[in-house]
């Protein structure tokens, strides 16, 4: 399957709006690169001596951003922190990850090379952005890196077909928190126009049960809707993994156990899923392939 150009190659979805197209998103998308040299963020309960241990739990993806695009991922989950000392924006998940600028450039380059694809970036956590100036710098960085592909929030872009987004050369949706309640630039969409449904379960069995429930409840939602298919380990479970081999000792290992069961669930579910969020996306990922094919036989009414 050509996952690099799956939107362009699938005639079934050309007349559908983005809210009626099934796709896969990556959870904490930028964590393939962890930068422990910049130290642990102040938002974790673990001391610095456990940095290598924390790295195993911070890392949810093994593929970089560009490779995820090639693998068929069209939704990216970003947590952004501003480092005041270095005066740079980073992605993070417990630990600092790659530069936000690098991630944005990777997505922009991919869109330039693949002219029929549409991508969604969701900046849903902001840290250490303490002033309006910090936030304006973030907005400017997004504009500088992505301007030629940004979707403008000047009229309802959630009801026009995919082919129209491609025609008007607006193929990158960016959703962002608005911590200072300012009027957002036209190229940023507010968080109230997207829903992300978190199961908040620390066991695969419980997560799958909640996943099934959430997919049915939200299948007719009118917004862009992310159905999260991720296990969230409890602090107790993470601590237990430090002392015993009975519990998976990393987010990646949990995903390796969970994702095949998510695929089995997906193959038997009749509910429409707009964006399915997973950990540990792979090249030739079976979940991605099935979600793409699913667009041909699962309808959102």
UniProtKB/TrEMBL annotation:
<protein>
    <submittedName>
        <fullName>Glycosylphosphatidylinositol diacylglycerol-lyase, putative</fullName>
    </submittedName>
</protein>
<dbReference type="GO" id="GO:0006629">
    <property type="term" value="P:lipid metabolic process"/>
</dbReference>
<keyword id="KW-0456">Lyase</keyword>
<dbReference type="GO" id="GO:0016829">
    <property type="term" value="F:lyase activity"/>
</dbReference>
<dbReference type="InterPro" id="IPR051057">
    <property type="entry name" value="PI-PLC_domain"/>
</dbReference>
<dbReference type="InterPro" id="IPR017946">
    <property type="entry name" value="PLC-like_Pdiesterase_TIM-brl"/>
</dbReference>
<dbReference type="InterPro" id="IPR042158">
    <property type="entry name" value="PLCXD1/2/3"/>
</dbReference>
<dbReference type="GO" id="GO:0008081">
    <property type="term" value="F:phosphoric diester hydrolase activity"/>
</dbReference>
């Amino acid at each position: 399957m050509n996952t690099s150009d799956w939107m362009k190659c699938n005639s079934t979805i050309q007349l559908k709006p983005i809210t009626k197209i099934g796709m896969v998103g990556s959870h904490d998308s930028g964590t393939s690169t962890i930068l422990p040299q910049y130290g642990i963020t102040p938002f974790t309960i673990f001391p610095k001596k456990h940095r290598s241990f924390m790295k195993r739990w911070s890392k949810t993806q093994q593929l970089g951003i560009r490779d995820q695009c090639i693998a068929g991922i069209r939704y990216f989950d970003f947590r952004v922190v501003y480092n005041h000392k270095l005066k740079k924006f980073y992605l993070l998940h417990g630990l600092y990850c790659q530069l936000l600028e690098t991630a944005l450039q990777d997505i922009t380059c991919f869109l330039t090379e693949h002219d029929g694809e549409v991508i969604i970036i969701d900046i849903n956590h902001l840290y250490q952005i303490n002033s309006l100036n910090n936030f304006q710098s973030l907005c400017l960085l997004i504009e500088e890196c992505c301007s030629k592909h940004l979707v403008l929030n000047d009229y309802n872009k959630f009801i026009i077909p995919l082919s129209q987004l491609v025609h008007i050369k607006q193929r990158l949706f960016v959703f962002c928190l608005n911590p200072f309640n300012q009027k957002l630039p036209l190229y940023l969409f507010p968080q109230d126009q997207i829903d992300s449904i978190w199961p908040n379960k620390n066991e695969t069995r419980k997560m799958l049960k909640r996943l099934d429930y959430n997919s049915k409840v939200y299948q007719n939602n009118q917004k862009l809707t992310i159905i999260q298919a991720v296990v969230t380990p409890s602090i107790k479970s993470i601590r237990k993994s430090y002392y015993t081999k009975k519990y998976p000792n990393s987010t990646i290992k949990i995903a390796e156990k969970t994702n095949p069961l998510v695929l089995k669930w997906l193959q038997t579910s009749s509910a429409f899923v707009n964006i399915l969020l997973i950990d540990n996306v792979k090249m030739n990922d079976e979940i991605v392939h099935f979600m793409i094919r699913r667009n041909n036989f699962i309808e959102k009414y």
